[in-house]
């Protein structure tokens, strides 16, 4: 008896929607959904990337390259999350307002062009983190094929490798607003400053990083192996100079290795359930 593989099950799940717009960042999760949608739906699948001040430099070009590689049509839409007061306020529900803006745009596009569904790259591991964006998705009827199939990040990367998806090992790159502590107002100039600082560090060869914005202070977080490199006095000086050149008066290099979602650690169980 043939046992259905995870890829076969995911392909069938996506194929069943008939046609779809994929919310596409170019990260591994949405790239896997896009790759399978291209296989299951062909010309009835469209990957769409949102462009705004919160998109880091290079991410759009990366998304375009992945879309071309996996064979899915690709378009961009402009989103205006900064026009939403709830987003600018940057409380713990910022992502709800961001995703509401995104899904409003994708719903409009899908309705206008006759696509039956909007798909996201949320995976099963996202359930354990603070993800108010999932509430916005639920309000818009967005489907999460990876989550529905019970696929977590490890399984997603394995399938992405199996399909030769270029972003299979791409580090996560959430929107630039995620570098601001909750309660720090989001503005275009601040997002641009964070982007300049992170781009400068990438040009130094650092790959997995965040520059956390604390007003005049930029706090650099690096992956464990890159933190060792930054311990060299010359490297440390280069990192500090790069971040200062982006407009920060003070620079700290966090002694703890970077971990995704670290600014969510202060969200209490009560707040998670709100």
Automatic annotation (TrEMBL):
Sequence ranges assigned to domain Asparagine synthetase in this UniProt record: 19-127
SUPFAM superfamilies named in the record: Adenine nucleotide alpha hydrolases-like
Gene Ontology molecular function: asparagine synthase (glutamine-hydrolyzing) activity; sulfurtransferase activity
Any GO BP: asparagine biosynthetic process
Taxonomic superkingdom: Bacteria
InterPro entries named in the record: Asn_synthase, LarE, Ni-pincer_cofactor_biosynth, Rossmann-like_a/b/a_fold
Catalytic residues of the enzyme: 175 (nucleophile and sulfur donor)
Cited Pfam families: Asn_synthase
Protein name: Asparagine synthetase domain-containing protein
